[in-house]
């Protein structure tokens, strides 16, 4: 009996002290996703996808040349693209003199390099300033530029529009300045003042080999000053610089390179065992692509290698949008297609029913 009280004591203790309960399960913290766990996704292939797509569709680029007669506008464009793209004709060859332009004429040419195709259109314009009365001589050129905007706009507002609208808009206008060495003519200022509102103007001093280095430098400074005083904006426009890098690069171009003093030639000569494009003079050969001789190489790099895509974007986002907004505003917000019955009248009843 001696163990009996102890047994009762243990039983009493077990009744007083509750058994430890299991702790409730704590939910686990979510594991942070580490990029190393995911492995290779392939985002970097987006650029390659875009490249392949644009390679298939190709590129369009439309360049206009404007200026006084006899400044070598057509020759320079041929030199720029190393091809007979200006006033192309089956019967014309390099040895013959380029015929004089008598009307605004657009000439298309497909250039291929490294698998990339570009449909280049050169818009050649008649030389101005030759007539007795040169008043409003810029109007035909301004009209042509606006007609291309109108053509694009009408295609864009069509109900059944094309998947890829043909782009005939002028992306770049090379304005040729005579190498007088003095100042711009009033006609040049008026011309550029009107054109700069509707197209990207790049001023170019033609036949720069007629000036000494000192004369060329002084003339470039004088032209820049006159353009600034007269409020004429040339490409690249300051307000369209997207970031600090663009601003730094474009400021250097605006302050040092513009206007480009160039020499154009589509004839080749032998210089130090190499074939070069140049102009033969009594005192030697002026090499077109030699920076010590002229700034043609700078112009080519600027137009084609660094700013071609931006020229197209500024044309679409600024000049075309300005024209489009004005047309829609003048037409009470309706597309231009509805302002006349001819050509688009068949769309009117459908549009009216949808409204």
UniProtKB/TrEMBL annotation:
UniProt organism field: Sus scrofa (Pig)
Name of encoding gene: SEPTIN3
Record-given protein name: Neuronal-specific septin-3
Protein function: Filament-forming cytoskeletal GTPase. May play a role in cytokinesis.
Domain annotation Septin-type G: ranges: 57-330
Domain of life of the native organism: Eukaryota
Swiss-Prot/TrEMBL keywords: Cytoplasm, Cytoskeleton, GTP-binding, Nucleotide-binding
Entry similarity comment: Belongs to the TRAFAC class TrmE-Era-EngA-EngB-Septin-like GTPase superfamily. Septin GTPase family.
One GO CC term on file: cytoskeleton
Subunit text: Septins polymerize into heterooligomeric protein complexes that form filaments, and can associate with cellular membranes, actin filaments and microtubules. GTPase activity is required for filament formation.
Subcellular location: Cytoplasm, Cytoskeleton
Disordered: region residues: 1-27
PANTHER family per UniProt: SEPTIN
